[in-house]
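Consider the tokenized backbone below.
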């Protein structure tokens, strides 16, 4: 069985260094044991790489900005770990497909609400709240104001007490 290096590379890299590293084609993997992910902003769109996903390599040449979610840890797979790299590529495709499925909904407000709801299954609300509307909106092709409205509606839904029957 191939061994992954035990080095969490994240503490040693600032965002600029990480962007350079990912743009250079080096392959890293989002640690699958943590509730974390990475929103990767490219020129015209953004992508989400969740736990277990490959980042860098041929996927992320042209990265412009990175937005970590949660306690991000990036690991370098062993150079001989073919199966591990293939699994990371497959996981990245699954996360891309998940976001793609959200964009199939024609209503922008519904897409926004679905993204927030889906992310709330994986991440603490506090982690999602710190992400700018522009960043989340860019994942699913909506306006930032639409994302702000969806957030407001979801907050109201969570703070409105449900009536009890007497």
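A designed sequence for it:
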């Amino acid at each position: 069985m191939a061994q992954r290096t035990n080095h969490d590379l994240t503490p040693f890299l600032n965002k600029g260094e990480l962007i350079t590293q990912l743009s250079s084609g080096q392959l890293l993997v989002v640690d699958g044991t943590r509730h974390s992910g990475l929103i990767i902003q490219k020129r015209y769109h953004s992508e989400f790489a969740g736990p277990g996903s490959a980042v860098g390599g041929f996927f992320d040449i042209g990265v412009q900005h990175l937005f970590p979610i949660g306690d991000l840890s990036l690991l370098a797979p062993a150079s001989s770990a073919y199966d591990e790299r293939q699994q990371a590529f497959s996981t990245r495709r699954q996360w891309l497909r998940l976001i793609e499925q959200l964009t199939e909904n024609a209503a922008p407000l519904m897409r926004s609400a679905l993204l927030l709801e889906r992310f709330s299954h994986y991440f603490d609300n506090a982690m999602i709240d710190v992400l700018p509307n522009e960043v989340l909106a860019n994942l699913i092709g909506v306006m930032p104001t639409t994302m702000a409205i969806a957030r407001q509606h979801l907050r109201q839904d969570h703070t409105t007490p449900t009536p009890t029957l007497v």
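Residues 136 and 147 are 7 Å apart (CA to CA).
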